[in-house]
Each structure stands twice: as structure tokens, then as C-alpha cells.
Design goal:
Layout (H helix, E strand, L loop, with lengths): L2 H15 L7 E6 L4 H13 L3 E6 L12 H6 L5 E4 L9 H8 L3 E4 L5 H4 L12 H11 L4 E5 L5 E5 L5 E4 L9 E2 L5 E4 L7 E6 L2 E2 L5 E2 L4 E6 L2 E6 L3 H12 L8 E7 L10 H6 L3 E7 L13 E7 L2 E4 L2 E5 L2 E2 L2
Parallel strand pairs: 1-2, 1-3, 3-4, 4-8
Antiparallel strand pairs: 5-6, 5-18, 6-10, 7-9, 9-15, 10-13, 11-12, 13-14, 15-16, 16-17, 18-19, 19-20
């Protein structure tokens, strides 16, 4: 890593993905762990005559936790917001209020200098826009999805009435949301309409977990996790401890996503792991800001490899390979 890599990353975030114009105003939100990345972006913006304000906030402690009211109100006054906090605000009402008002939002949790300099951030975002549009059109209006894998996954999802979210990384419209280097399309399944067993063999991008050495099975009934199973007993204990800290609806299967970034690699960080081409992910907890109805200050994703996906009667992925 060197300064040239950081400058490329800053260019990608502010100009390619953020589409920031000189007539606009951007807000960078960081905490103690991400402050250095925010300072690099701030310096890049100033050097290129872009208007930006950088605010340091307290750590949010978990993905989906609301910021304090002062920050939530501040977020309403900008064209572009870079949520560079350690934990994601993408699933908060504060983010939704800002994007409902027209702000473009780059959700950039858990960033450090290695992410800013990552090859995944230099992937061709524009090239994947067409692929994302095809997947979105298939999910939009779909009734159901079936996810299977050779490791024993057999999961049914009810998608009726739910919109697809095209989050390929470039913010071209007011109110849009993306998380580069993540490139994904996602949808919020009906909250009580998921049933089956899913084998998570990739990662759990949370400080307690990361890339998995042993897979973990999630048993899902009536839309929510009823139990975890794994040869790694500590993993099961840690997952139960994490979820037990939150209300029961934190266990609701809230998001189904498909990664599209060909340069991303599983590393234990949310935005690169979720975006890995050939993987899918399931988010549990809040989905009220992405087309669902479950509201809770919690959201954790589970990354799965080698999935086969059937949307209604159309197979769109087989053993981790997209067929469209």
C-alpha cells in the first residue's frame, strides 16, 4: 500500500461511485477506528475543489444502530453522504430519512487503509451494471427463490411483493445507496416466509467471526433462525451469545443478496465479502429500509459459497456460477 493506492481509492469513492459534482456538498462520517480513511478522503476532496464536511462520531457498537439525533439531523442537508463508521448505518432510519430526501449514500463500514487500497475497489463497476440490472429484473416481481448447495442447503424464500435493490456501487440517482467495493443485488424476503436449512461456508463479517474455518448451519423456520449447528462449538456459542443480546426479531431472515465483484475475495470484512462474485449472503435483523417490514437495531450478514439459486422456475446460479 502507498499513497498512490489511497488516492485511487479516494477517486473511486468520491468521483466514480459517489458521482460527486463540484456544485454539491458531501458529508463524511467516521469514528475513532476509521478517522484516518476519512482524512484521506477529505484531503482528496479539498485538493480537487470538492466541497466536503468531515464529522467524527461515537462508535455505533453494532450494524443497524441509529446514530444520535444531532447526526441524524445533520445527514439531511447533503447531496452525498459517506458513512465511514466502523458499523453500518445502511439499515437505520437516519440513513433512510437522508436518502428519502434525495441524498446519495455510500455505506462504507469497517473501512481501513487496506480496504481503501484494495484491488476490489478498482473493479470495473460500470461493466457490472448490466449484470446487476438483469438480476434485478428477474427478482423484481418474483414469487419465490430456492437456494441449494452440495453441503446440504435447502432453503425456500417467499419474495412476493418485495422490490429488488440494485446496489452495484455507482450512485447515479438521488436517494440511491451502495457500498463499494460491494457490488450486489438484494431483496428483503417476506419475514415469515423463509423455511429450511442453509450452510454458511464463507464468512460472517463481524469482529467476532470473519472467514470461517468450519461451516455453520442455520435452521430457519417461519422466517427466523431457530438454531445453529456446527462442528465448531465455540462458533455456535458465540453466535447464540451475540443474538441473545437483541430482541427475538433480530433472528429474522431479512435480506437475500447476490455478490457481483470479480476482484473481491473473502477476507472477513463486510463490503468485500458481500460483494464477492460467486457468493450469496443472508442478512438477519433489520430490513425496514430495503423494502421489508422488520425494524430492529441489528443486522448481521452470513456469506455462502457454491450456491445454486432458482428464482420461480429459472435457475440463475449453479454451484456459485452465474448463468445469466
Amino acid at each position: 500500500m502507498n499513497d498512490a493506492d489511497f488516492q485511487k481509492g479516494a477517486h473511486t469513492l468520491l468521483l466514480t461511485c459517489g458521482q460527486l459534482l463540484k456544485t454539491e456538498m458531501a458529508l463524511i462520517l467516521t469514528d475513532g477506528a476509521t478517522k484516518e480513511v476519512g482524512e484521506i478522503l477529505e484531503a482528496f476532496a479539498i485538493k480537487h475543489d470538492l466541497k466536503v464536511k468531515h464529522i467524527l462520531i461515537d462508535s455505533l457498537e453494532i450494524h443497524g444502530k441509529e446514530p444520535d439525533e444531532t447526526i441524524a439531523k445533520e445527514m439531511l442537508d447533503y447531496d452525498l453522504i459517506l458513512g465511514l463508521t466502523s458499523y453500518s448505518m445502511a439499515h437505520t432510519q437516519a440513513r433512510k430519512a437522508a436518502t428519502d430526501k434525495g441524498a446519495r449514500y455510500l455505506s462504507l463500514p469497517d473501512y481501513d487503509l487496506s480496504v481503501l487500497a484494495s484491488p476490489a475497489l478498482q473493479a470495473d463497476f460500470e461493466a457490472q451494471e448490466k449484470v446487476a440490472a438483469k438480476i434485478s429484473s428477474i427478482l423484481e416481481g418474483a414469487s419465490s427463490a430456492v437456494v441449494e448447495s452440495a453441503l446440504g442447503t435447502k432453503l425456500n424464500l417467499d419474495l412476493r411483493t418485495r422490490p429488488a435493490n440494485n446496489c452495484v456501487g455507482i450512485l447515479r440517482e438521488k436517494g440511491s445507496l451502495s457500498s463499494p467495493p460491494d457490488m450486489e443485488v438484494n431483496i428483503a424476503p417476506i419475514e415469515n416466509g423463509s423455511h429450511g436449512k442453509v450452510c454458511i461456508d464463507g464468512s460472517i463479517p463481524h469482529p467476532l467471526f470473519g472467514v470461517l474455518e468450519k461451516p455453520v448451519y442455520l435452521i430457519v423456520e417461519n422466517g427466523a433462525i431457530t438454531s445453529f449447528e456446527s462442528e465448531d462449538k465455540k462458533l455456535v456459542d458465540d453466535l447464540n451469545t451475540l443474538f441473545d443480546k437483541f430482541p427475538a426479531n433480530a433472528k429474522i431472515l431479512a435480506e437475500f443478496g447476490i455478490g457481483l465483484n470479480p476482484k473481491a475475495k473473502l477476507c472477513g470484512r463486510m463490503l468485500e465479502d458481500e460483494g464477492c462474485l460467486g457468493t450469496i449472503h443472508f442478512g438477519f435483523g433489520s430490513n425496514a429500509t430495503i423494502g421489508g417490514m422488520n425494524s430492529v437495531s441489528f443486522h448481521v450478514d452470513f456469506i455462502m459459497r457454491h450456491a445454486t439459486i432458482i428464482i420461480d422456475d429459472q435457475k440463475i446460479m449453479e454451484d456459485g456460477k452465474l448463468l445469466i
